[in-house]
Specification:
9 helices
Length: about 220
């Protein structure tokens, strides 16, 4: 029985890593997604072999470099896949997948905002199952207050409408304390980027994705 549980966690870890890899491709290629698309090197365009596209492991098989052009591959790819595997195992551990659709939405939007600086609202539909699964625990008043407050702030500060909508969705699904923690941590990430790279323009949704992925497990472990 114990071995079966470990095997189940391994399967969920692999599944989570594969989901991250898949969602990254969706966010990068949408709306021109091709079913015949082949993974290729970002530098020389060489089509990757099957073992090179294995989540996490493929990066280390080729020692983090393209076998053709020898350029260093981005280590964020296996790192994000590893984190996706851990999050998948955590959801299995707590036996609660009601927030999974929300996380899928945030991951796609986070990648899209990171790559292009904008998002496609159609991906909001990914979070719909979370709304239905947690319908009795939605925070309507808080979400409305968050949306209206941010719309008013938008007249003074340059807030993106996508940022406002994503924050409203988070506020609808999480209680106010968790929402404020997520927002505060995302702002801290922005400050780190500002002092580290002196950037004044921020793509905020990736930070919201990271913050939600950090605060949710911590909140569960601290207050369960």
């Amino acid at each position: 029985m114990v071995k079966l549980i470990y095997f189940l966690y391994l399967l969920f870890f692999i599944l989570g890593a594969c989901i991250i890899s898949f969602l990254k491709v969706i966010a990068h290629d949408y709306p021109q997604i091709s079913l015949s698309r082949r993974s290729h090197c970002d530098y020389c365009g060489r089509i990757l072999r099957w073992f090179e596209i294995i989540p996490i492991i493929g990066y280390f098989i080729v020692h983090g470099k393209c076998n053709s052009c020898k350029n260093q591959l981005n280590f964020s790819n296996p790192l994000l896949e590893f984190i996706g595997g851990l999050m998948s195992c955590f959801l299995l551990y707590i036996d609660d997948f009601s927030y999974l659709p929300l996380f899928l939405m945030l991951i796609v939007l986070g990648f899209s905002d990171f790559f292009f600086g904008y998002i496609y609202p159609i991906f909001y539909l990914l979070a719909l199952p979370s709304f239905f699964l947690r319908f009795n625990h939605l925070h309507w008043l808080a979400a409305i207050a968050i949306y209206l407050s941010l719309i008013l702030l938008q007249k003074i500060y340059s807030l993106g409408l996508g940022d406002i909508e994503v924050l409203t969705i988070i506020g609808l699904l999480f209680d106010l304390n968790s929402f404020l923690c997520i927002l505060l941590l995302a702002c801290c990430f922005c400050l780190i980027q500002y002092f580290g790279y002196k950037k004044r323009a921020f793509r905020f949704i990736p930070y919201l994705t990271w913050s939600t992925g950090i605060i949710y497990p911590l909140s569960y472990l601290m207050f369960r």
